[in-house]
Design brief:
heterodimer, A: about 350 residues, mainly alpha, two-stranded antiparallel ribbon, 15 helices, 6 strands, B: about 325 residues, alpha/beta, Rossmann fold, six-stranded parallel beta sheet
């Protein structure tokens, strides 16, 4: 689109909305479509001290993929990809559910997060030190990780009754579901870490041209390990949220194919798979677009056979709306000067 | 050409049959050695099936050798060949797919080792190659669930929502067909919504949440039917979180009878579940024993019973105690 992101942060602040326009418009369009198929879509009430409504469902169920996309967007920005996040979710969920009833909450959470971090560092070392292509390096854990999770749960659905861990599924802060609060907090933290410091620039530089960045004094290996570690950590949080949601760990299905949803969220958010510039906020918007679509399909009462086709068409429309070539064709007359002037 | 080739193979089959009948008279009634090619342990039910098979063998004084194929047909074919080489008395096969068994089952037939299919059927063209198939009738399972609902609601109007299994899975299609046909006969029962929950708890929960929102906070819903218990357990959670009482505000009926469903029924959160028994091997051992000792040829299909368990049953705790250590 444009090189506006490389401008100093203060000037970028007011430029962000224009860059985000296609995604925000898509989200709005899908929400309005949801409203059309289900008149009570925007109704938000209270049930048991918790906000209750379809819009809340979108946020609540979008949380795991949004969590994954927080890590994925950084990995993709370095030119990598992390296929293992779904399996890491399954591992951390399985561990959390197995420990929840016998250990205090901090130990449970600590262990689940630590295992995610270890998985992430493992991926990072394979990519940064052993120079294995990211898609291959993370494929190893994607396949093996689910097996590890199944070993932890012994192949069955491991349920738990600990109220501490269950809070992440059924609890709330001022009525907002816990999963949404956790994801929002993680988004703010990621933004602060990455955009509040020079880290974001270094990640972009690593993805843009690793060799030049190294010569410029950026420790690209450390950057690579760090982004995969962050991705593992985010996946572990997503795993905890998923396990808390159903009060149990389902090693066979938890996080299954969610790595693809996370990649899709990042791509919808306008980040190129080739690495370089990225947007954390828009990746989260991408995750919400995906979930708004899923929830809408469920509410529409459309026969189940149509789900994937509808989803594919909507994704196609969103991605087409972002296509620079198409934009050049469609907006030449009235908006040509506005878009053309940006770079 | 074709006809000429066929003749010897028919005589071969006939002579094989005669030989196996002769051999059968000499075989021992007890202490059979059986090779079981299991698909894997992808679900709790399958783990329970493996456990029950071992228990059955122990009870009868038979020996069972289990080969876990990890979802791969090639592994199952290897396992069957190794069972043939070991000269087992019979082979149980839970086929991972329906086709591609002709060659290896012909080898088993040539070695005069009877093959019994468990839980799933194969290509009808290969019918002569196995002794019998022990499976449940998943259309019937749906019908049993539908019948329970019809009897429970009586003449009252009732709106049903259905949480389907994975799109394209034959079990899902069959359980839907059986249930839908049963309730369609009743003018007072209507299936108002139907969506897929992919057989998982988290999808089942998400689908139920959307049903509740789309149907006036759940007030329009009288009953839920889920194609398996796991999706229903998710749905029960969704109902609770929406402030509804599953089991009384909204009736529940699902299929499988996993231990967690018994826990839910004991807690009065669920009403009924149709059992898909993990004991497919029990009838298979009986059929194999009779065939080996007396030469009795069983029917081509042995249907397992689809037992209905409801929250009104007095023996829920006993059934749960039996089931909980099977590996579900």
């Amino acid at each position: 689109m444009s090189a506006a992101v490389d401008a100093p942060p203060r000037r970028a602040a007011w430029r962000v909305p224009r860059k985000a326009l296609p995604q925000l418009a898509a989200l709005l369009a899908i929400l309005l479509l949801d409203r059309a198929v289900s008149p009570q879509f925007f109704h938000v009430g209270l049930s048991g001290g918790r906000l209750f409504g379809s819009l809340i469902d979108v946020l609540n169920h979008g949380a795991p993929v949004a969590m994954l996309s927080l890590g994925m967007v950084l990995v993709i920005a370095t030119g990598g990809i992390d296929l293992s996040v779904g399996a890491v979710m399954a591992i951390s969920g399985a561990l959390a559910a197995s420990l929840a009833d016998s250990h205090p909450l901090p130990v449970t959470l600590g262990a689940a997060l630590a295992v995610g971090l270890v998985c992430g560092v493992w991926n990072g070392l394979l990519v940064a030190w052993l120079r294995i292509q990211p898609i291959v390096a993370t494929l190893i854990l994607m396949v093996a990780g689910r097996g590890v999770a199944q070993l932890i749960t012994e192949g069955r659905i491991r349920t738990f009754s600990s109220h501490g861990l269950a809070w992440f599924g059924g609890g709330s802060v001022l009525g907002v579901p816990a999963a949404v609060v956790v994801t929002a907090a993680a988004t703010v933290l990621t933004l602060a870490l990455v955009r509040g410091t020079a880290l974001g620039l270094m990640v972009e530089a690593t993805g843009g041209n690793a060799r030049a960045s190294r010569l410029a004094g950026i420790d690209t290996r450390a950057m690579t390990v760090a982004v995969y570690a962050w991705s593992g950590l985010c996946a572990a949080v997503a795993g905890i949220l998923a396990a808390a949601d159903i009060l149990g760990a389902d090693a066979n299905n938890a996080g299954l194919y969610l790595e693809l949803d996370a990649i899709l969220a990042v791509v919808i958010g306008g980040t190129s798979l080739l690495g370089g510039r990225f947007s954390i906020g828009l990746a989260v918007v991408g995750a919400l677009i995906i979930q708004a679509m899923n929830t809408g399909i469920l509410l529409s009462g459309l026969p189940a056979e149509f789900n994937l086709v509808v989803k594919a068409l909507v994704v196609l429309a969103v991605l087409l709306a972002q296509s620079p070539r198409l934009k050049a064709l469609g907006l030449r007359r009235p908006g040509a000067r506005a878009t053309g002037a940006t770079p | 050409m074709n006809n000429r080739n066929r003749l010897p193979s028919v005589t071969l089959a006939a002579s094989a049959l005669a030989m196996s009948l002769l051999g059968a008279a000499a075989a021992r009634a007890e202490g059979l050695v059986v090779g079981f090619s299991q698909i894997g342990s992808e679900s709790g039910w399958r783990a329970a099936e493996t456990t029950v098979t071992k228990q059955d063998a122990k009870k009868n004084g038979d020996t069972v050798k289990i080969a876990d194929a990890q979802q791969k047909q090639e592994n199952q074919i290897k396992a069957i060949r190794s069972f043939i080489a070991q000269g087992v008395d019979g082979i149980f096969l839970a086929p991972v797919v329906a086709t591609g068994w002709h060659q290896v089952l012909s080898e088993a037939r040539d070695a005069k080792i009877p093959v019994i299919l468990l839980d799933r059927d194969i290509d009808p063209a290969d019918k002569p190659l196995y002794l019998t198939a022990v499976t449940s009738d998943s259309v019937h399972e749906g019908a049993v669930a539908g019948d329970w609902l019809v009897k429970t609601v009586g003449a009252k109007p009732c709106n049903v929502v259905e949480i389907e299994g994975t799109v394209g899975a034959s079990v899902a299609a069959n359980r839907k067909e059986g249930f839908d046909d049963e309730v369609k006969k009743q003018p007072n029962i209507k299936i108002i919504r139907s969506e897929t929950g992919d057989f998982t708890r988290s999808q089942g929960k998400q689908v139920m949440e959307s049903f509740i929102k789309a149907e006036n906070g759940g007030k329009n819903i009288c009953a839920v039917y889920a194609h398996n218990d796991d999706m229903m357990i998710g749905a029960i959670q969704a109902m609770k979180e929406a402030g509804l009482k599953p089991g009384s505000d909204i009736l529940t009926v699902s299929v499988d009878s996993v231990p967690d469903m018994f826990r839910a029924m004991i807690a009065h959160d669920a009403n009924a579940t149709v059992e898909l028994t993990p004991d497919m091997a029990g009838p298979a051992f009986v059929a194999l024993g009779a065939y080996k000792s007396k030469g009795t040829v069983p029917p081509k299909w042995i249907e397992t019973k689809s037992v209905l368990h409801t929250s009104a049953d007095g023996d829920l705790q006993q059934v749960l105690d039996q089931k909980k250590d099977l590996g579900y």
